[in-house]
Amino acid sequence: MAGIYIGSTAGYSGKNMVVMGLGLKLQKEGYNVGYMKPVGAMPITVGDRSGDEDARFVQDVLGLDDDPAAVTPVLVTQDFKIRAFGGHCQDLMTPIEENYKRLSQGRDAMLIAGSGSMYSGKYCGVDGVSVVKRLGAKAMVIDRFHKELNYDYLAVLREELGEAMIGAVLNDIPPTFMDEVQSMIKPFLERKGVKVLGVIPKDPLMGAIKVGDLAQRLGGKVISAASKAERVVENFLIGTMQVENFMTHFRKNKNSAIIVGGDRSDVQLVALEGDCPCLVLTGNLYPNDIILTRSEVLEIPIIMVREDTYTVAKRMETILSRHKLRDVIKIRQGAQLVSSSIDFEYLKQVTGL
Prior knowledge:
- The chain is of the alpha/beta class.
- It is built from 15 helices and 17 strands.
- The protein folds into two domains: 2-203 and 324-351, P-loop containing nucleotide triphosphate hydrolases (Rossmann fold, 3-Layer(aba) Sandwich); 209-322, HprK N-terminal domain-like (Udp-n-acetylmuramoylalanyl-d-glutamate--2,6- Diaminopimelate Ligase, Chain: A, domain 1, 3-Layer(aba) Sandwich), CATH 3.40.1390.20.
- Helices cover 44% and strands 21% of the residues.
- It has a six-stranded parallel beta sheet, with helices on both faces. A five-stranded mixed beta sheet has the order 12-17-16-15-14, sandwiched between helices. A two-stranded parallel sheet has the order 3-6.
- The radius of gyration is 23 Å and the shape is globular.
């Protein structure tokens, strides 16, 4: 039985996407795949069964119905943290190991999902590095591009895990950085013993969010064309500049929500006529009647929020980088990205599948 731990250099790096992509691919090839997320930070209770929200979602996608408490034996709550930091951290690795053995029975492969980074949970002895060593699993580590890659982190992990680290997956790589990855970073990592299992290109759809969900996450409300709140936002653009300059940037950034002051009707009108997915009006200011009418006619939603433009832009950046993989279309696209980007033959060879 092959045990594969999917960890990452930081949180929100694409672990669920890779786990689901691997699982669906292996299932399609006829393998009996099991799943576990030893440590969960999103407690949820359905009926009388407690577990982790992300883990339950992945189980549903993979068609698995194992006991959520066995899938995620360690749930991190505020009470848990208080006890742990107070020095009352019990032996948590034993239940992880026992449940792993139970869930592994009859499986060809076990996918073990990490939580946070590979060192998250060190304060109570359940970090990814410790879990990999205790379970005797093989580790693949995702490094998501965010301004740069964490290549030093990957090299250190290789030194610490040795042969147990079978490789890295470089995720969300923008087209402008792909040449550097292929010509410099990939060769560097492989000289350090870090096999690059795959390079997943940036796909705008994977970071997209529906207008209705965006309004909720921003703490705002949709005040116009609410029936079109299913429209999808892939990026954002700040409309604080002069109209002429804004138009230049707007043409290059389609599918971008426009964040603009509620009093900037000139920019608002240009954005609406240019078919942006939605307007996000800041400062808790209602638009004028012309803007509201055009919004309804063109079926482009308007979200109104209280905060200033800078604050909303910072929140948007965080939301788009951390939005959960929940829509069916995203799952299919993510599975396709993983399937086409990762060296499955090598993965099966080193794990004995």
